[in-house]
Amino acid sequence: MKKLESTLPNMAIVLTVISVLAGGILAYVNSVTQGPIEAIKKQTLDDGIKAVLNAEDLKVEEPDTLESRDIIYATDKGTAVQASSNGFGGTLKVLVGFDGEGNITGYQVLEHAETPGLGAKAGEWFQATGKGNIIGKNPGEKELTVSKDGGDVDAITASTITSRAFLVAVNNAYKAFKGGATDGNSGATTQAAPAEEAAPADSVAVETTNE
């Protein structure tokens, strides 16, 4: 076979052929994997809803997506709500289960960008076996806040900002559950410490760095 000359038109043709072939391969791979990926996502969500509601056998109704992007999953065993807030490293998204009275039956952290080993502990810290246990609490009776802000929830050690953001997300989930407006900010920006405990301005950066 005669070798193509290294001219601009020939190089353009070769690049076009390569691009078309690569695009076709990517499209094929996407079509093959999209179905299984969506199935895995659905199974993960179904398992999450069962976990936060402590129920293996339940029927989930069509989800209701709110303007705040919170999502409500009503079931015959309770309600699961996906809500979020701004954490130390980015968006912190949780799935929270509520019984008919608004008591928290369970939760899962779905997404976070928190510091490994510190803020990342939120997945376990606030469980029934954790130091900051929120299971059984009702945000409608008393909004969940960390003890540093006058609340009764112990913050993750060295991760106050993450803890505040997590509780904001849980409170947002409750508000969505009750049909109210939610707040996307983190607790670090929406909750002020009492005046007598306010830190000097030059110490704010220290807390931010260390959560």
Concise structural overview:
This protein has 211 residues and is of the alpha+beta class. Helix content is 37%, strand content 15%. It contains five helices and five strands, in the order H-E-E-E-E-E-H-H-H-H.
* Strand segment tally: 5
Global Rg: 24 Å
Strand-residue proportion: 15-25%
Shape: elongated
Category from helices, strands and their pairing: alpha+beta
Mean pLDDT: 82
What level of helicity do the residues show? 25-40%
Distance N to C terminus: 66 Å
The tally of helices reads 5
Low-confidence stretches: 187-210
User: Secondary-structure element order, as H and E?
Assistant: HEEEEEHHHH
Write out key terms for the chains shown.
single chain, 211 residues, alpha+beta, 5 helices, 15% strand, disordered C terminus
Draw up the topology in text:
Blueprint: H1 8-53, E1 64-65, E2 71-75, E3 78-86, E4 91-98, E5 104-111, H2 122-125, H3 160-178, H4 187-190, H5 204-209
Antiparallel strand pairs: 1-2, 2-3, 3-4, 4-5
What does this structure look like?
The chain is of the alpha+beta class and 211 residues long. It has helices spanning 8-53, 122-125, 160-178, 187-190, 204-209; strands at 64-65, 71-75, 78-86, 91-98, 104-111. The longest helix is centred in the first third of the chain and has 46 residues, at 8-53. It is elongated, with a radius of gyration of 24 Å.
